[in-house]
Amino acid sequence: MNPKVVHEKTSPQRECAPVVPLFKALAHPVRTAIVHRLVEGPADVSQLVELVEESQPLVSHHLKVLRDAHLVRINRVGRNSHYELIDEHVARIFMDAFNHAKEHDHDCKH
């Protein structure tokens, strides 16, 4: 072992930094509605457009943000593309946050 090698302690901010894009990606009502729907199972763009009542290009943009944050993926079958959550962690993170928010009203003082 090289005695000149100094092991730097990782700062808490640096250690937690990879989580920030995940929360940024979820910080929009359209994207949270999409993720909430995908907790139930895969959906195609037309289903998501109908759900959020926004234009297809806007929904596609939000899906790209979610893909870039590694929250959703595309499953292509022939000419059809279905979006799905990347794994069960995403569903649990979202549902924990969703249930927490529902349990606490705006007048909560803790």
UniProtKB/TrEMBL annotation:
User: Which InterPro entries is this protein grouped with?
Assistant: ArsR-like_HTH, HTH_ArsR_DNA-bd_dom, Metal_resp_trans_reg, WH-like_DNA-bd_sf, WH_DNA-bd_sf
Alphabetical list of SUPFAM superfamilies matching this protein: Winged helix' DNA-binding domain
Q: Which SMART domains match?
A: HTH_ARSR
| GO MF, one annotated term | DNA-binding transcription factor activity
Give the CDD domains listed for this entry. Answer: HTH_ARSR
Describe the location of the HTH arsR-type domain by residue ranges: 11-105
* Keyword DNA-binding attached: yes
Is Transmembrane helix tagged as a keyword? no
Name the UniProt key words of this record, in alphabetical order.
DNA-binding, Transcription, Transcription regulation
Q: Which domain of life is it from?
A: Bacteria
Matching PANTHER family, A to Z? Answer: ARSENICAL RESISTANCE OPERON REPRESSOR ARSR-RELATED, HTH-TYPE TRANSCRIPTIONAL REPRESSOR CZRA
- Its name, as the record gives it, is Transcriptional regulator
